[in-house]
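User: Structure please.
Assistant: Input sequence and predicted structure:
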Amino acid sequence: MAAAKIAPSMLSSDFANLAAEAERMLRLGADWLHMDVMDGHFVPNLTIGAPVIQSLRKHTKAYLDCHLMVTNPSDYVEAFGKAGASGFTFHIEVSRDNWEELIKSIKAKGMRPGVSLRPGTPVEDVFPLVEAENPVELVLIMTVEPGFGGQKFMPEMMDKVRTLRKKYPSLDIEVDGGLGPSTIDAAASAGANCIVAGSSIFGAAEPGEVMSALRKSVEVSQNKS
């Protein structure tokens, strides 16, 4: 069974105090730190790149779960590997012709490969990547349109999670977008085990309690199945 992993989305943190925010999240129970990398092209927003990952890496040993919302993910593999990224998740929509090569290069740089899908992309599109000889090790289901934090959770995306969990019982299935105490049960019962949450954690009076509630929901759902 894929273990529960709670990954605060650092896009919602105070970027001026990123190292302190990372340390605070880990102290309060985070498993991973989710890093939203946007190029201003694949999505309209522009966020952080390898230099920020490299700076943060000097201050933390945490698993840096990097989600690349970029048009040319292969251009970033070497820089992110050098910077100290732990996971490198690319989008299937921009990698249909070169995903095999991309997975190989991500692994060669010591990172864990993942693939993500926008809400409009059929889940079947990632089956070959999970079943490949050299497979991705995580599938990220976007539960909002990628690009901005604070959006509303799309429950209809849970069908994708259910399909993946049924087909791949031990796969890391990550959900990102609008996750919090009011939406976690839908995601957890569908089979998601890696939970990305930004506003609901960073905007809470007690972020540790929110992370604990998210984890508990995943674990309760897993014990039922």
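The beta strands are 5-8, 32-38, 63-69, 87-91, 112-117, 138-142, 172-176, 194-197.
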